[in-house]
Amino acid sequence: MLRYLLPLGLFLILAAFLYVGLSLNPRDIGSTRLDKPAPSFTLAKLNDANKTFSNQDFNGKVSLFNVWASWCVTCRYEHSLLMYLARQGYVVYGLNYKDTREKAQEVLTRTGNPYAANAFDKKGQVGMDWGVTGTPETFIVDKQGIVRYKRTGQLTEEIWLKEIKPLIQELEKT
Fold first, then answer.
1. Domain containing residue 119: CATH number
2. pLDDT digits (tens, 9 = 90+) for 51-76
3. Burial of 169 from C-beta contacts in 10 A (0-12 / 13-18 / 19+)
4. Which of 98, 61, 74, 95 is nearest to 155 (CA)?
5. FRET partner for 151 with CA separation of 20 to 30 A, picked from 9, 33, 49, 69?
6. Alpha helices in the chain (DSSP H)
7. Distances (CA, A) of 123 to 9, 25, 97, 101, 139
8. What pTM was computed for the model?
9. What's the domain range around 67?
């Protein structure tokens, strides 16, 4: 009898691990930045290399910080949602990641610019400081400059309505 129960028990344990593993998002590796101050940085703005954007620009308002690139196909899919959010009055900042200034500006000229300001991170160093693993990634930064949310991958209307909008509304109260 034990001879049959041992393999059955091992099978059930393995099946439980597989079941839990399949329910996880493989792109979501978490963030060491959550509930900590946004990394300190100062970068030239994408549209004007003589002006800068820094982590200090987050202070005093709840901000959506979107990491994107002209070469990122998925970024194109979420762009219309970002445009909608900007039209609705949400503060959307961008970090143009490992791109060329010319191609990034061309994309924004052609598709519209949802960003209140856009930092140009040509080498990707600031992205690495934020823990960026690819594009797109989106962070929510509270009024005190603390990172409160990270989303790896495309923003969708469903994610906006279920996760991000309620968080922003809660953070706006504080």
1. 3.40.30.10
2. 999 999 999 999 999 999 999 999 99
3. exposed
4. 74
5. 49
6. 2-22, 73-87, 101-111, 125-130, 157-159, 165-173
7. 51, 28, 8, 12, 20
8. 0.81
9. 29-173
